[in-house]
């Protein structure tokens, strides 16, 4: 392909991707409120002030849009934790940085995490979601592996099990914050500090 045509195609692709991201940011607000099971493309269009035609132009169907939304959010979630870990030196700082990043995300982004757990459950029944769920979980396992190594642990054999345990605690605490059994921030920090202290 000639260089000029290639550049034009790349610009067009970048513009399309940027528009998809803008649509996804609007759609996330509707999805956070309604959840996967209760949300149609029409609901998303109405709640995000977008036309149904616009959604169909950029996304094949509801599943395509939801997968995209959750993917871009979880990528940002992992980047935030990675950034926090970059500043940490030694076991105690790694535990503190990781715990703080997790608690901050529960308080700031609990509803989008709820959507993630929703589609992860749906992936047991709908193979459409399985590739993206596997991809996201691999990213999450990798960030646990990074923390494990930064804390000075040499044997990463138990990383996947530790991820599963951490994920279970995270989901439980996040679910409580949404319901009527919310805990204060200090209590959540203490819980994660204690858990990660056992890991590292």
From TrEMBL:
It holds the Pfam family TetR_N. Residues 40-59 bind DNA. It comes from the Bacteria. InterPro entries: Homeodomain-like_sf (IPR009057), HTH-type_TetR-like_transc_reg (IPR050109), HTH_TetR (IPR001647). Residues 17-77 form the HTH tetR-type domain. The keyword Iron-sulfur does not apply. GO terms for molecular function: DNA-binding transcription factor activity; transcription cis-regulatory region binding. This is TetR/AcrR family transcriptional regulator. It comes from Ruegeria sp. PrR005.
